[in-house]
Amino acid sequence: MGSPRVGVVTGLASEAAVVDGLLGEDVSSVRVVCAGASAARAAVLARRLVDAGVNALISFGIAGALDPRLESGDLVVAKDVLTDDADCYACDSDWQEAVRSALAEVRLPCRHGLILGSKRLWRAPDDKEVLFGTTGCLAVDMESGAVGAIAAEAGLAFLAVRAIADRAQDSLPSLVENALKPDGRPAIGRALAALARRPSEIPAALRLARQSELALARLRTLEAVKDALFGGF
């Protein structure tokens, strides 16, 4: 078996499972890694993908909205990715156009614009409002900036595709700060303990779970455009 052509970096194990589902048996050309919602781990894993011989890197999964017009389940294809340090990593123009054209052909709507790749979680609506105003980014996640940096360093094509979970006006429960294991699987015991300490956050946690499933469901619809996503290299 030859080297994979496309490396996919996700934050959650559930996002990686979506990619596996999209690929089916056609997995030899794509390698998927899961960073556990850590920018530092995303960088390490992206570099390993480069060492494995990939020709392109894609940051794939769910994100939080910064643009108040975005709803849970909306799809965002990045034009470029900004970072906390104001670095900007360009997404491959041909790749993003191929994905957008494929989406249009099957009538799957998407937004096209900037994504913020941050090293931290942004839980408060006021903070998200400020980020939107200062950066113009549509959405924020914790992997795209790190993956973009490694792609730029290696001279590889880069893309970020994200589906919205929490909206700009939604507050995230504090449990999200420690809700994942390093492999991206949920740390259920820690989450339940956090809710036991702060039962007032149960409604927000349930809302986020519903929103995350909407986002994952939208990502699953990308089977219709998987050739544009993963097959161009």
Quick tags:
8 helices; 8 strands; 40% helix; alpha/beta; 21% strand; Rossmann fold; 5-stranded mixed barrel; 233 residues
Short description:
The chain is α/β, with parallel strands linked by helices and about 230 residues long.
Question: What integer value in Å does the Rg equal?
Answer: 17 Å
Q: Strand tally, please?
A: 8
Ends distance? 16 Å
Could you give the order of the helices and strands?
EHEHEEEHEHEHEHHH
Would you identify the regions where 5 or more consecutive residues have pLDDT less than 50? none
* CATH class call: Alpha Beta
Main beta sheet strand tally, sense and closure: 5 strands, mixed, barrel
- Number of separate structural domains: 1
Shape by Cα distribution:
globular
Mean pLDDT: 94
Which structural category do the helix and sheet elements fall into? alpha/beta
Helix content: 25-40%
Task: Provide the CATH superfamily.
Answer: Nucleoside phosphorylase domain
Oligomeric state of this protein: single chain
Q: If you consult CATH, what is the topology?
A: Rossmann fold
Our count of helices gives: 8
Q: Strands of the largest sheet, in order across it? A: 3-7-6-4-8
Strand coverage percent: 15-25%
